[in-house]
C-alpha cells in the first residue's frame, strides 16, 4: 500500500497497526498499547498473563495505580490479616536465614 499520499497521523497509525499485526503473527510483538492510558510501551512494561502467552492489557504503571487504593482499603479494614501476614513473613525470613547460616557454616568447616 502506498502511504505517501496519506496524512502524517494516518501514516503513524497505519505503521503502528502493521507493526503490531506483524508482531502478533511472528509471535514476537515488541510493543503494546495500554488499554487504560493508551500509551504504546515495550512488552516488558506489561505483566505476563499466567494462562496466555500475551501480556495483560494494562501496563505495569496503570495496573499499580488501579490496584493501590484497593490494597490500602483492604489493609485498613483487615488489620488482623495484615498483622498475621507480617508475623508469618518474619518467621519465614528467620527460618530461611537460619538454614542459610547452617549451610554456610557447613561449607566453611
Content of β-strand: 5-15%
- Mean pLDDT, all residues: 80
What class would the helix/strand composition place it in? alpha+beta
Biggest sheet, open or closed, and with what strands and sense? Answer: 2 strands, antiparallel
Query: What CATH architecture of the largest domain would you give?
Result: 2-Layer Sandwich
Query: Ranges with pLDDT <50 over ≥5 residues?
Result: none
Helices, by number, come to 3
Structural notes for this entry:
The protein is an alpha+beta fold and about 110 residues long. The protein has two domains: about 70 residues, Wheat Germ Agglutinin (Isolectin 2), domain 1 (2-Layer Sandwich); about 30 residues. Helices cover about 60% and strands about 15% of the residues. Strand 3 and strand 4 form a beta hairpin. The longest helix has 30 residues. It is elongated, with a radius of gyration of 24 Å. The N and C termini lie far apart (about 70 Å). The model has no long low-confidence stretch (mean pLDDT about 80).
Name the descriptors.
single chain, 109 residues, alpha+beta, Wheat Germ Agglutinin (Isolectin 2), domain 1, 2 domains, two-stranded antiparallel sheet, 61% helix, elongated
